[in-house]
Each structure stands twice: as structure tokens, then as C-alpha cells.
Amino acid sequence: MKMKRFTKGIIFLSMLLFSGCISLKELKDIKTGSIEIYDNKVDLKKNWKSNIGGTNEFYLIQPSPVLDDVNYDGILEVIAGNSKGFVFCMNGEDGNPIWSFKASDAISSTPTVGDAMGVGGKEILIGSLDENLYCLLGEKRKLVWTYQADGTIISKPVLLKGVRENDISVIFAARDNLYCVSGKDGELVWKFKTENNITSTPMTYDIDDDGVLEILVGSEDHYMYCIRGEDGKLLWKFKTGDEISTTPQVADLAQDGEGKVVFGSFDNKVYCLDGVKGEVIWTFETGDNISASPAIGDIHPSEGLEVLVGSWDNNLYCLSGIDGKLLWKYSSGNWIISSPVITNLYSKDKKEIIFGSRDNHLYCLEGDSGKLVWTFDAKDEIWTTPAIGDIENNGSPEIVVLSRGNKMFCLTSSLRKKG
Ligand SMILES: [Ca+2]
Ligand SMILES: [Ca+2]
Ligand SMILES: [Ca+2]
Ligand SMILES: [Ca+2]
Fold first, then answer.
1. SS3 for 89-105, per residue?
2. Could you tell me if residue 358 is inside a domain?
């Protein structure tokens, strides 16, 4: 059974908004989650927890937190949005807010941090159900520009160089359109229309190796689109059996110099397409919808890169990027909506996979075997993608995860000290 969670969701969610506003002072401590360790060589501890407020009722419209040093003090900040319209810039060391900004409706897109204005600073690009894309200064609470789109903004904006000379562009989706606007002032460069909502985050890649970037984006009209970055012209489109809401990943999977496009669909399948022609190389069928974006990396000793993808059949799959063959799978207790993150927590030559499940747990698996390393029970469903970075630069990476009820946890995992 499939839930049409998006369109109806937005109408209902809009009615829930403005039922109250929180101030920075009201960010408060919440009940602690529990940790289980399955590998006696590692440790996991909680650094802090916070409640950023608001509730998320519908799938795919909860923004994930992002880590970046937006005030240049060598410490990473957490940038996060909530369903009450707040964007928070929080101190990564303790979770205390540094500044906040309020939109007039829920923050619905994961933020992107980058030099959008092209003057060497760090801006935060974030979309809202109020149909505005906001460009905020990262360093302090300041709105640089706003672009009023023709619909709600669910997917994450991305930055694209080379559309116009000496200018960085922001690519984002609102309702059924993909927009390209100037990062300097938000002026529209081009617009590309699909036949239904776009909740998929656009991916940029020079797929035909001609020095000009292409944009890959999926739509709920069932198509994956490949669009020329400089003018928004269609290069190819590929039809799946149902809605696409996952972010396509593009990588040289077989390490033969050719970019392949990998994504999942609500028709339960993972697709790998030839990037130049948009033709199928392989597919892999899971037991239910795929709404989480895949992750790609060299995590397994088998040849080439591997594809990791979660499904509403509760499983996380590790597939060979070359032919889509199953290398391992891990069964969680509920749907996987959270995208997996590939990281190095314990050593340079082995990778770990971190992802959340609707069964309330954050999982850490060994990349080469799929073996469980630890779990963290957030006591609340996890839909978002965790953010990983070494917040205070001490060699132990931190993991920031946001639960459906907007409880945020900061965890640190490292090798257990000997003796
Ligand atoms: Ca900082
Ligand atoms: Ca190109
Ligand atoms: Ca490999
Ligand atoms: Ca650290």
C-alpha cells in the first residue's frame, strides 16, 4: 500500500502551523536516548541533546541538519530548520543557538551552505512551504535575498558554477518547476517545468565530460531528467513505473571514466542509467517504495564502487555499482526514509555506514560486511539524514541526528581507549 504523503500532506501541515511560536529560550533538554554497542573496540557517547521544536507529520518534508563552520571560528555549527518556520544556527559543541531566522511557514528543505554570492563568504540557502527560497548570511542573522517561487520548496537547493560568467547559480525546485537563479541577488536565469511535484534534490555533474555541468533531477511525474546547466534545456528523460523523490547520485561506478546515474523510485526499483544517453545499465528490485536517496562509495572489496540504498521494505541494500548485484543487506525494524551516510569513524581504510529508520534507531554498520557496530535509540522515528563532522577538530567525528519530533542528538564515536 502506498501513501500519497506529499500533496495532501502539505495542505494538512499548513493547517497545523502557527499554532504557536517558540523562542530561542524555549529550546530545551529532552529525554535521553539509549546506546547499544556490538563491537567491543568502539565507544559511542552522547554530547548533547536539544529540542528544536515543531512536529513533522508527513514524509519527505522534514529538513535534515547540516554541519558547517559558518562563522569561521574553527568549530562547526549545526544549521537546521523546523516546521514552525525557524532556521537555527546552533553551536555544534553544546547545541545552543547562535542565531535564528523565521520564515512565514514551515522550513521544508534541507539547507545548503556555500559561497552563493561569489564573494568568498558562506551563505545558507533554504526553502519553505511559504514558497520562498531564502539566502541568509551564515555568520550572523541576516537575510541577503529572497526568491518568491510558484510553489512549495521541498528539495535541497544546490549551487552551480559556470551558468553565467563570474556568477554562481542556485538550482532548486518549487512544486513542478526547477529554477536557476543568480546566487548574487536571486534573479531568475531559467526555469524548467516537469509534469508533477519535484521533491528530488537536483544533482550536478559534467556527465558528457565537455566542461559544462548537467543537472539530474527526478519528478513525481515518474521521470528522471537530465538538463543542461547553462540554459535549462532537456538532454534526455527516463520513465520509471512511479514517482521519483530520491536525489540521483552520479558517479564513475565502474571506474571507466563514465558517469552513471543512480536513483530509486516508488516502483520499488533502484536504477542505474548511462549518463550520456539515459539508458538502463541495471536495475535492482526491493520489496517496497524507495524514497531515500542512495549513497555511493568504495566501501566493499569487490570491484568498482558500491551503491547503498534504503527501502520501505525496512532493508538497507549494498549493491555492486557495476552490475547491481546484492553484496549484503541489513534489516531494520521499519521503513528506511533516511539516506545512508558513508564515513570513516575508526580508521582510514575501513568505512562505516550511518542511517536512521522509522523503528527509532540510528544504525552504524561496517561498510565491507554490513555487520552491526552500534545503534542509538532516539525513542522517536528517524526520517532525516544524519550530519557527520568533527565539530571541535579533535580527531573524533560527531554525528548529529534529528528525529521526527525534532529532537536533536549529537553523538561522538571513537575507538575505545586501551588499558
Ligand atoms: Ca564556527
Ligand atoms: Ca556536460
Ligand atoms: Ca568496491
Ligand atoms: Ca570531535
1. EEECCCCCEEEEEECCC
2. no
Which residues are bridge partners to 66 per DSSP? Answer: 79
Q: Which residue has the cell 563532522?
A: 389
Domain with 124 in it: 62-198+200-208
Q: Which-ligand-closest: CA of 397?
A: 4
The reported pTM is 0.91
Residue 248 lies in a domain: no
**Which of the ligands is closest to the CA of residue 368?**
3
Contact 85, 104 (CB under 8 A): yes
Mean pLDDT split into 10-residue runs, the chain, 419 residues? 41 34 39 83 94 81 95 97 96 97 96 96 97 97 97 96 86 98 97 97 93 95 97 97 96 94 98 97 98 96 97 98 98 96 94 97 98 96 96 95 96 85
What distance in angstroms lies between residue 216's CA and the mean position of ligand 2's atoms? 11
Residue 229: nearest ligand to its CA?
A: 2
The alpha carbon of 278 and the centre of ligand 4 are apart by a number of angstroms equal to: 41
Q: Cell triple for residue 105? A: 511557514
Domain membership flag for residue 370: no
Cell digits of residue 125? 540557502
State in Å: Cα 302 to ligand 3 middle.
4
User: Over the range 265-275, which residues count as b (16 or more CB within 10 Å of their CB) and which as e?
Assistant: bbbbbbbbbbb
Q: Cell 512565514 sits at which residue?
A: 104
Does some domain include residue 23? no
Output the CA 47–ligand 2 centroid distance in Å. 44
- Total structural domains within the chain: 1
Q: What is the CATH number of the domain that holds 116?
A: 2.40.128.630
For residue 362, give the H/E element and its range.
strand 361-366
Ligand 1 center–CA 90 separation, angstroms: 9
Sequence-ordered list of residues with C-beta below 8 angstroms from that of 159, at least 6 positions apart, any chain:
112, 114, 115, 116, 125, 168, 169, 170, 171, 183
d(CA 109, ligand 1 centre) in Å:
22
